[in-house]
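User: For a teaching handout, I'd like to show students what a predicted protein-ligand complex looks like in token form. I'll give you the sequence and the SMILES for zinc ion. Please answer with just the structure.
Assistant: Understood, here is the input followed by the structure.
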Amino acid sequence: MSRECTHSDLASCTRPSSGQVGALMQQAENLCVERNQRFTELRRLVLEMVCRTDQPVGAYQLLDELRDRGRSAAPPTVYRALDFLLQQGLVHRLTSRNTYLACAHPNRPHAALFLVCKRCGHTQEVYTEGVLGAVKTRADEFGFIVEHTSVEVSGLCKHCEEHPHG
Ligand SMILES: [Zn+2]
Ligand SMILES: [Zn+2]
């Protein structure tokens, strides 16, 4: 299977349309069946909430939303659900903010690069083999085995750059 991940329009990891959320949920369902993993109701619910938010979301925000839906859950339960989704490649974690966002290509394991707007928080996942390849090459030179790469680039998104006063 190709590791290439082009992150086309459909693959935009933030602000997916409702149709895209449906497709992502179906894809997640299929992957869990294929991998013999239990896609429990809570895991499903958490993934759906992550997909539906237009910005990367933190665990406590998810807890609030669960409570609004009448499903109270303890923080460790939500963290475990998020860990599961991370392991399956269904979500990515932004280390700098400790927030999560859905990945549109869970069937292709990949490292990710994120453009994070420092003003509105909008986060776009982009795939660039060049940067990630360079990281691996340099790590190899130090005999370092890369397990996980996540690159977060801070700056201003197009919207904020064009509308500097709001
Ligand atoms: Zn991704
Ligand atoms: Zn912005």
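For the handout, you might add this sentence: The pocket of zinc ion (ligand 1) is lined by residues 92, 103, 105, 110, 112, 125 (CB under 6 Å).
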